[in-house]
Design a protein that fits this description.
Blueprint lengths: L9 E7 L5 E7 L4 H14 L4 H4 L7 E6 L5 E5 L16 E6 L3
Parallel strand pairs: 1-5
Antiparallel strand pairs: 1-2, 3-4, 3-5
InterPro entries: CRIM_dom
Protein name: CRIM domain-containing protein
Pfam family, one: CRIM
């Protein structure tokens, strides 16, 4: 069972891809970070982001990081096992998805 399925409350995430392309993704507020990464990858595919930008379709090869004010990812990733709603700042949810390859 996917954790976020069945939730009626959604939040808008703004996610920067590795090439700095920004995409918007609506997710159930109860979704775990690990699930959100998969949703981001699927949304990128729907938006015809070139395959080389993401390097993989496997969500395990990526981590989600908060987006710093200078436009770069924070130095630490957010916990994959936590609900995404715990990581917003002032009602905004801006992240970077980073390829780790592992």
């Amino acid at each position: 069972r996917i954790h976020g399925i069945g939730s009626t409350d959604k939040i808008l995430l703004q996610v920067y891809l590795p090439n700095k392309t920004l995409i918007d993704v609506w997710v159930p507020d109860t979704s775990l970070v690990s699930e959100v990464i998969g949703m981001v990858l699927r949304q990128a595919e729907k938006e015809n982001i070139p395959a080389g930008v993401l390097k993989s379709k496997k969500s395990d090869y990526f981590e989600l990081r908060m987006h710093d004010e200078d436009g770069e990812p924070e130095d630490f990733h957010v916990d994959r096992n936590q609900p995404i709603k715990h990581f917003g700042e002032d009602g905004e949810y801006v992240f970077c998805v980073c390829y780790t390859g592992t």
